[in-house]
Fold this protein.
Amino acid sequence: MKTATDYVNSCSAIIFDLDGTLMHTEPDIRRATNQALLDCGFQPLH
């Protein structure tokens, strides 16, 4: 199984569509951010 590091190192570019023009990614970004905060012992953002 490839790790995140393996995947990133095999890519020549990573593109983030943060303003939502190509895909509606805000819910995924919010969910991932909140999980990372919880994993580090912080309160999630709402």
